[in-house]
Amino acid sequence: MTANAALPLEHYSGILTHERSRRADGSKPWLAQHRRDAIHSLRQLAFPQRRQEAWRYTRVDQLLQHDFIPATGEAEPQVDIEQWRLPRLDAHRVVLVNGRFVPGLSSLGDLPAGVTVAGLEQQISGNSVLPARWLGQAAGEPAHVFNALNSAALEDGLFIHVARGKRLDRPIEVLHLTDAADAAVLANTRSLVLLEADAQVTLVERFSGIDGALYFSNGLSEIILQQGAGLEHYRLQDESSSAFHLHSLFVNQHSHSHYRNSSYALGGTWSRTELTLDFLGPGAAVELDGLYLAGEQQLSDVHLDIRHTVPGCASHSRYKGVLYGRARAVFDGRIEVGAGADKSDAHLHNDNLLLSRNAEVDTKPQLEIYADDVQCSHGATVGQLDQAQLFYLRSRGIDEAEARRLLCLGFAGEVLQRCAIGPLRERVEAGVSRRLAQATDITGDG
């Protein structure tokens, strides 16, 4: 660790140690130990370096230039959430501000029996049996210093538990807002989602903040799907243009469970989404769809680690990126098919559209196969707009900017059309159109 890199570590560990000593520790012993272990890891780990394979194309220097202050929850936040609502979405709604559950902004009064949706702090205080059993199980030891920071600062977050065989007819909408009007805030977002056998849920998560605000949203989610459970999971990252966003998802799938994740990354000056998925029982399946749009000085990073360790599981991953201006994107996807994981069906593909000569993408889909009798494939493409298609649209009287917008939406359409939540799909399409309309360096000529 260099001297300069050590300074931010001292900054964060000092703040967390002070907060722990200042706060009367009425927490559960297991939770206090969880925090202590995380603070120990925080002091032992270094910030990621480019010599580490997982961070080879993603620098954290820009992030480390800021001394973010962990958000406090001493007062009820006064936030007008109307601008962030999804119109016409009939859902159970959860609002978290700076990683803290806000009951007054949430709407959970009509949840059916057997379904618990609450703040993590509220659940730990009222009935900590499930959090004590599962918190930290999917994530394991901190993968990097940001995961350790999240656990060390753990106080609140999102808790979802769906009992055996329960099916929610309406989706659960979770709005993660960061309120950073007065300071450069560090918002540690933590989620624990447990679906028991044969439970079925749709979860819609959105991450946002006031545009132009400087903050760091550092999230960690653990999702456990027991036998036959199904989760349809949508995620829209539409953070402030000055924000830093990192979210690590850890998913454990037991036999015959099904997980579908559709992710859309549009905002932030620096964003990274990590998804680590472990198959723990045969017959499980995962479908991953992703769309990332980056322009000007944005960095958008997607990191996948899918581990087939048991027979008969399937993973299909399709990600698309649209880049313009001086944007950079990273797609680092890895599928490991372990010894004995026969009959695995694993496919990974990444397509990228570069709209300017200064845009850059580093794409690295990987397959590691140690089993026989498998069906696996991977691939990546990087290209520009089709000039013949552009000429055709221009010849029909469509101006160049609109023609480019339509072609980009057509490229993204394969991902967007699989979104079953109409209001969310419309919000993503509008965000893509708005950003493309604001772009000043779209040449289409490479």
What does this 3D model show about the protein?
This protein is α/β, with parallel strands linked by helices and 446 residues long. The protein has a domain at 3-281. The chain is built from 9 helices and 20 strands. The strands form 2 sheets. Strands 1, 4, 5, 7, 9, 11, 13, 15, 17 and 19 form a 10-stranded mixed beta sheet that branches. Strands 3-2-6-8-10-12-14-16-18-20 form a 10-stranded mixed beta sheet, covered by helices on one side. The protein is globular and about 70 Å long. The relative contact order is 0.09. Residues 1-6 have low confidence and may be disordered.
Write the layout of secondary structure elements.
Layout (H helix, E strand, L loop, with lengths): L2 H20 L6 H16 L16 H4 L4 E2 L21 E6 L2 E2 L13 E5 H7 L2 H6 L10 H8 L5 E5 L9 E7 L6 E11 L4 E10 L5 E11 L4 E9 L5 E10 L4 E8 L4 E10 L5 E10 L4 E10 L5 E10 L4 E10 L7 E10 L5 E10 L5 E9 L3 H9 L4 H17 L5 H17 L8
Parallel strand pairs: 1-7, 2-6, 5-7, 6-8, 7-9, 8-10, 9-11, 10-12, 11-13, 12-14, 13-15, 14-16, 15-17, 16-18, 17-19, 18-20
Antiparallel strand pairs: 2-3, 4-5
Helix pairs in contact: 2-6, 7-8, 8-9
Give a short synopsis of this structure:
The chain is built from nine helices and 20 strands.
For the record, give the distance between the C-alpha atoms at the N and C termini, rounded to a whole number: 39 Å
Helix and strand string, N-terminal first?
HHHEEEEHHHEEEEEEEEEEEEEEEEHHH
Main sheet summary: 10 strands, mixed
Which overall shape is indicated by the principal axes computed on the Cα atoms? globular
Please state the structural category.
Answer: alpha/beta
Strand content: 35-45%
With helices defined by DSSP (H or I, 4 residues minimum), what is the helix count?
9
| Fraction of residues in H or I helices | 10-25%
Number of strands: 20
Arithmetic mean of pLDDT? 90
Radius of gyration: 22 Å
Poorly predicted regions are: 1-6
